[in-house]
Amino acid sequence: MLAEFLAARRYLKQRSQPGQGDANSSDGGYSLIPQEEVGQSPGSCSNLEEEEVDADKEGSPKEEGGVTLSSHKRILWRLFGLAMQEWSYLALGLVFLVAASISQALLPRLTGDVINSIVIDKSEEDMEEALRSLTLFSLLCALFSGLRGTCFLVVNTKMNIRIRKDLYQSMLKQEIGFFDQNKVGDLTSRLSSDTNKMSDQIGLNLNVCLRSVVQSIGLLAYMLLSQWRLTLVTFIAVPLVSLLSKVYGHYYHLLAKAVQDQQARCNADAEEVIGSMRTVRSFGCEEEEVRRYEQELQEILRLGIKQASAYTGYMFCFTGAPLLVTVAVLYFGGHMVFTHLLQPGDLVAFVFYQQSLSQAINSIGDVYAGLMQAAGAADKVFDIIDRRPATCPPSSSCSFSSASCSSPTHSSLLLSSSSELSKEQLQGSITFQEVSLVYPSRPDALVLDRVSFHIDPGQVVALVGSSGSGKSSCISLIERFYEPTGGEVLLDGLSLSSYDNSFLRRHISLVGQEPVLYARSLLENIAYGLGREVEEAELRRRVTLAARQACADEFIMRMEDGFSTHAGERGSHLSGGQKQRIAIARALVRNPSILLLDEATSALDTASEAQVQKAIDESMKGRTVLVIAHRLSTIQRADKIIVLSNGLVVEQGTHKELLEAGGAYAELVSKQVSID
Ligand SMILES: Nc1ncnc2c1ncn2[C@@H]1O[C@H](COP(=O)(O)OP(=O)(O)O)[C@@H](O)[C@H]1O
Ligand SMILES: [Mg+2]
């Protein structure tokens, strides 16, 4: 009950006093003892609020029959386990913590001694002696507290780094379908704010919990032994205050949530409007939108004022009540002084002890809320860390055993045992055997319906069909971004799933419609994925060759920094055509047996298209090529054309054969519109 009251009190204080919720004033009274918290990031208060509101929505853990409680317990144990990996810093922190607590516990007693030496002994010498001790222990307390904080901060940081690395590693190993289903913003917030919340809260609360428990036990024992009557008085008002806090806390909580909801609505509306500025401008709705926004702000103001008014009640309940306890202690203590049961200095010391105890218990109440917050964040993070990708990631960097992947994948290439092919060889034949595909994010749409075709090594094959017919999906399957729902994709006669993914990445390259470059040098962009095992000189040789094949060497050499030129954020320092040629060079640098081209020129203007087309023609030589293009000249030259419609192969053959057949392809050509 006491813990609940204290947690509610702290929580409401944070809500109502943005930026003022410092621990020094948390008891509304005076305190000699420094109140310090370490490791809490500035945003922690507001995060705590969100979590608490969320927790409230879900119902309290106790009410849910222990389900949430037990899962949170499991998560918390796991988190503690992570923290324990830094046991050396934790142990050191604990030593400083005990030292700081002992010196802190002596301070009220020494203050009492100073007062007694002034009031009772009236001895300057005794006063100076007591003051010297007080100074010494105050300084020691400050020093040990600082050292304790440092140790726990190091634990926080180390833990945070470890969780982030594990999370990032796990994210990047997930199958592509996972990224269809999870928004980039959500994943990055897992990576930043959730991991911070986890480590901050665990570090902070371990620190606070250990400190408060050590302090509370010590203080309570001392108070009971020295002044048991006054100790009892201290606890008289607690049940009363607890009841008040429950009733008032609920009301205040509802108000705070209403403000938060309204703020979220307001932000969502503004985001929508800013994101669709063209529409707003073209309909001339700027003023109208400002008016709407203002109305929403007015509602926030109204709720905010209501919340601010409720602050009076909050102050009265939560700050006035402990002060009344102090008054009661002073009243009884004063009488004890008059009846010579107590010395004035001892009374002052007791009041300080009472304040310290109240703060220590207060902090223990906060620990629960903090830990729940950490568990909430950790739940989402551990979900991703523990998630097994549906397809196995490249084994080179794979820390999962192949058994941990849900599809039957082998951790090494099967070819060496089952055929004469060595690891470095791939002939490049591709076969689709009755392949069907349903995307995990759209389980009700059959995107490919028993698609079958065969491509011989070294052939150039064009996939044509209207937009949405399933061309890119075929390429995604060859890249193993998705697993077929039915049928099989074969490479050199063997199922794609029997190959090691890193082998596939080395031998299959893809150039997409929108080149994705990274904010790194051109050299790094072209060499992307080559691996560290390639030596510097060899790497340069291969990059230069690939750039030449991709007709990119000319413009790169014209640049001041050549291959060291920085590509800019998402390649923003380059033109569209240049970016695409870098992307082609990146695909060619590994000299792939199979080249997949998915509308590589369709996002370009005519001038760049001609340059990139030249690069593509060059790059097709000597390998199996599956091309999706809208230029008739590219399609015409293909050894085979496969026509897709609504996920079905409707025709296949050469340009000539298909024209003669007079079917879907002939129709597409006769329309003389670009075939996309
Ligand atoms: N990642 C995805 N998740 C869900 N549906 C998808 C995804 N990619 C494509 N689709 C759907 O699959 C169908 C075929 O798409 P796609 O293969 O990209 O066609 P094309 O390349 O021929 O234009 C379309 O209906 C499209 O909406
Ligand atoms: Mg496409």
Q: What does this entry look like structurally?
A:
The protein has 676 residues and is an alpha/beta fold. It folds into three domains: 62-227 and 356-390, ABC transporter transmembrane region fold, CATH 1.20.1560; 238-341; 423-517 and 590-670, Rossmann fold (3-Layer(aba) Sandwich). Helices cover 62% and strands 9% of the residues. The chain has helices spanning 2-16, 44-58, 67-84, 87-119, 124-173, 176-181, 184-226, 228-234, 238-275, 277-282, 286-338, 344-386, 415-418, 471-478, 501-507, 522-526, 536-549, 553-558, 576-588, 606-619, 632-636, 655-661, 664-670, and strands at residues 430-438, 446-455, 460-464, 486-491, 494-495, 508-511, 594-598, 624-628, 640-645, 648-653. It has a six-stranded mixed β-sheet with strand order 6-7-8-3-9-10, with helices on both faces. Helix 1 (2-16) crosses helix 11 (286-338) and helix 22 packs across helix 23 (664-670). Bound molecules: adenosine-5'-diphosphate and magnesium ion (MG). Adenosine-5'-diphosphate binds next to helix 14.
Keywords for this structure?
alpha/beta; ABC transporter transmembrane region fold; Rossmann fold; 3 domains; four-stranded antiparallel sheet; elongated; binds magnesium ion
Rough shape?
elongated
* Bound ligand species: adenosine-5'-diphosphate, magnesium ion
Structural class: alpha/beta
At the first level of CATH, the class of the largest domain is: Mainly Alpha
